Amino acid sequence: MSLELIKQVNDRYIDALAFHRTSADAFAFLSLYGFAQIHEYQYTEEAQTQRRLKLFLTRTYNHLISDAGAQTFDLLDAKIKNKKRSELQAADFWQAAQSAFSKYRQWEAETLELYEEITQQLSSSGDVVGSDYVKNLAVSINLELQYITDLMTAYNAIDWSMEQIRAEQDALQEKYIYRVRELYKDFPEYHHFNSV
Ligand SMILES: [Fe+2]
Fold first, then answer.
1. What's the 21 CA to ligand 1 centre distance in angstroms?
2. DSSP structure string for 15-56
């Protein structure tokens, strides 16, 4: 019962990695490298979280579970993603950036809902350890959701001015490159006897 529930969380992480990978590609295509780097960071952070989760499952429930295959994501309209980058118009960037952010927000909101539901079910079944584990994952998803919501609110206020947004990309890129490096600095020794 517990294992089946937490397997759904693991499968969601497999999809989340595909989501962040696809988003990083989309923003790089739009030459919005700061936004692309946010997704590179989330990709790396969530990959590490998924590896820890998998070990938690094996160690706590003593079963080896398989990862589901990841779904594919369509973040940009066909009329935009089928163009060459040099053919993109100002309106394409404006529309694509909003669409990719709105899908990002929706993805994290649905993920949070799923984790909260699973936390609740684990708790009702008396699995305190599993419930606490998923609850902690939900906390970090909630922080991610709040961050994107705040960014979107700020961009809505300036009607997604691409001039302003482009001006912020270098600083964002630098910040998230730093954060990726920090993740590797603390890289866990997954299979060490005393780790995780
Ligand atoms: Fe995420």
1. 10
2. HHHHHHHHHHHHHHHTT-HHHHHHHHHHHHHHHHHHHHHHHH
pLDDT at position 38 is 98
Residue 193 in any domain: the answer is no
Taking the centre of ligand 1 as the mean of its atom positions, its distance from the CA of residue 127, in whole angstroms, is 25
98 C-alpha to center of ligand 1: Å?
A: 17
Q: Are the beta carbons of 76 and 93 closer than 8 angstroms?
A: no
- How far, in Å, from the CA of 138 to the mean position of ligand 1? 11
- Joined together, the tokens standing for residue 172 give 């964002």
Residue 69 forms part of a structural domain:
no
Largest Cα span, the chain? 57
Percent above pLDDT 70 for the chain: 96
* Nearest CA-CA partner of 114 in 89, 86, 142, 90: 142
Distance CA 51, CA 33 (A): 27
Distance 16 CA to ligand 1 centre (A): 6
**CATH number, position 94:** 1.20.1260.10
How many Å lie between the centroid of ligand 1 and the Cα of residue 61? 26
pLDDT, tens only, 106-159: 999 999 999 999 999 999 999 999 999 999 999 999 999 999 999 999 999 999
The total number of structural domains in the chain stands at 1
What is the 87 CA–ligand 1 centroid distance (Å)? 30
